[in-house]
């Protein structure tokens, strides 16, 4: 073979390897982006499950604590905020509001021994607890996926391709500052 032919083959092979490398790096970013969307869908499923349990819980409490109208309306409004959220950030914020409202609801339930002993209430409370655990796990998974994606789009060679794909860093789901405070326990 002539030297020119060998050089042409080597150049074509190098171009082919570079093209495969570019395709691989680009596809890696796209896979990570899709993985984040999937992780959010898993959170959304759990939040929907949680929201679906709320009306039954409110109705159960209503039967025992009808004069706690403000607390019940707060839970209902917080649930509506979660159901109507349009983005992961909105859903996360609405979920935090719902968590606080449910905390107030369960605090009210403490004042009603018959309610605390009601089998339907106990079952709903247990289902909410299990769903909360699933939401926590799904959030952790989401944040892990966001970390992988952010690493891919902010490190070399991903930075070379992220911009052309319109991909930028994504935000993680975080706990708002008031919820991070450690509760103060006082013994009188």
Descriptive overview:
- The protein has 188 residues and is mainly α.
- The protein has a domain at 45-156.
- It contains 7 helices and no strands.
- The chain has helices at residues 3-64, 69-83, 88-109, 113-117, 119-154, 158-165, 177-180.
- The mean pLDDT is 89.
Mean pLDDT: 89
Low-confidence stretches: none
**What gap, in angstroms, lies between the N and C termini?**
95 Å
The sequence of SSEs as H and E is: HHHHHHH
The profile of the biggest β sheet is: none
**Residues in β-strands, percent:** under 5%
* Extended strand count: 0
Radius of gyration: 25 Å
Helix-strand makeup class: mainly alpha
Number of helices: 7
Estimate percent helicity: over 70%
> Which descriptor suits the 3D outline?
rod-shaped
Summarize the structure.
Helices cover 81% and strands 0% of the residues. The protein has 188 residues and is mainly alpha-helical. The longest helix has 62 residues, at 3-64.
Please tag this protein with its features.
mainly alpha; 0% strand; 7 helices; single chain; 188 residues; rod-shaped
Give the secondary structure arrangement, pairings included.
Layout: H1 3-64, H2 69-83, H3 88-109, H4 113-117, H5 119-154, H6 158-165, H7 177-180
